[in-house]
Amino acid sequence: MSEAMEGDRNPSVAETPNEWPLWEVFVRTRGGLAHRHFGSLHASDGEMALRHARDLYTRRQEGVSLWVVRSSSIIASDPDNADSFFEPAADKIYRHPTFYQIPDVLKHI
Amino acid sequence: MTMLDQRGTDAPARQVGIHFDYLLRLGDDSLVLGQRLAEWCGHAPALEIDLSLSNMALDLIGQATLLLDHAGVVEGAGRDADALAFGRDALDYRNCLLVEQPNGDFARTMVRQWLFCTAQSHLFSELTDSSDEALAAIAAKALKELRYHVELSADWIVRLAQGTEESGRRIRDAFDWHWRFVDELFEFDAVEQALAETAIAVDRTMLRAKFDAALSDLLTLSQLEQPAEHYPVTGGRRGHHSEHIGPLLAVMQCLPRAYPGAKW
C-alpha cells in the first residue's frame, strides 16, 4: 500500500507491499441477528476477500450474510488507555436498570 | 475388455449400457477434476486459496459420488460409487481429457476450472429437465456449486491477466495449453445422440454458443485475446486418455486396492 493512501488508515495495522492486505470478516448467522466478528484473512481486494470469507468461515453453513472490512480501516481503542476509557463506568451502578421491580407477568425483559 | 463389449446386442440391454456409459462420463469428469484439485491441498499460494481449492474439490467429489452411485443403480450389477471409482482402470474411465491435465501453475488450474465448469454448468442447466429424474436432481444440486466455481475462477483469471507481466503471461500460456481440449467438451457422439432421443441426455453442440459468449465476455474483461487455434484432441469418452491419468488413478486407488473394504 502506498504512503499516500495511509492518511485515513490505522497505522497500527502493518501492511507490507508484497503481501495481501488484512480484512476482518463479519458473519450474520441467521436472519434478524447482527453481523458478528468471526476472524480475519488476507486478500488482494474486497471481492476476493468476500470469496475467501465464504470459503473460510461459512463452509459449515455458519451464515446467511457476510461483511468484510479492511483491518486498517478499523479505529480501535488503545489498550494502554483502558483505565481512562472504561473504569469510570465501574462505580456508576445507577446506570444499570436494576432498581426497578419487574412485574412477574412480564416475560422476556 | 471395454464396456462396449459388455453391452450385449438386444435393445434394452444396449439402452442400459449407453445410459450407464453416459453417467460414467459425467461422474468421471467430476471425480478426476476433484482429485486433481485436491492435489493442491497444502501447496496453494496462500492459505485462503488452499481452502477455496479444497472446497471446490469436495464439491466435485460429492457430485461424482452421486453420479457414480446412480450409474451403479442403472447398471444393476451391484457396484456403488466406491466400486466404480476405485475398481476401474484408465481404459474404463470416461472423463474428458481436459480434467485429467496436470495442475501446472495456479493460472493453469484456474483456466482449466473455468473452461470445464462453464461448459458443465450450461450442460447441467439443461440436464435439470432430463427424463432421468435422479440425474435431473443431481444436476440441479451441482449447478449451484459449479456456478460458484465459474465465478471464483473468473475472478482469478481477470486479476492474473491484469496483474503483473508474469501473471499475464502465465494466464495466456494457460489458455494456450488447454485450448486443444475444449472441443471435446461439446462432443456429441452416437451414445449421447441415442440418449438425447429419450431426453436423458442433451445435445452438447447446442451449448457451444453460450460457452463462446461467456468466454468472449471473460476475455474482454481480462483484456486477453482469443486463444490461438489448436488441432483439437479428443478420445477420453472412449477411454483413450493422455499419459497423465495413470499416475492420478494410482494415487487415488492405491489405498482401497491395497486394503479392499478398508474403513477409517
Low-confidence regions of chain B = none
Q: Report the radius of gyration of chain A as a whole number of Å.
A: 20 Å
C-alpha geometry of chain B: globular
Shape of chain A: flat
Unreliable stretches of chain A: 1-7
- How would you characterize the largest beta sheet of chain A? 3 strands, antiparallel
| SS strand fraction of chain A | 15-25%
Mean pLDDT of chain A: 83
Beta content of chain B: under 5%
Assembly of the depicted chains: heterodimer
Largest interface: A-B, 13 and 11 residues
Distance between the termini of chain B: 33 Å
- Helix segment count of chain B? 11
Order of helices and strands of chain A: EEHEH
Descriptive account of the structure:
Chain A has 109 residues and is of the alpha+beta class. Chain A is 16% helix and 19% strand. Chain A is built from two helices and three strands, in the order ββαβα. Chain A has helices spanning 46-57, 82-86, and strands at 22-28, 35-42, 65-70. Chain A has a three-stranded antiparallel beta sheet with strand order 2-1-3, with helices on one face. Chain A is flat, with a radius of gyration of 20 Å. The N and C termini of chain A lie far apart (49 Å). Mean pLDDT of chain A is 83; it is low at 1-7. Helices cover 66% and strands 0% of the residues of chain B. Chain B has helices at 3-6, 11-38, 47-75, 81-87, 97-100, 106-127, 133-161, 165-178, 190-197, 208-222, 245-258. By secondary structure, chain B is mostly helical. In chain B, α3 (47-75) packs across α4 (81-87) and α6 packs antiparallel against α7.
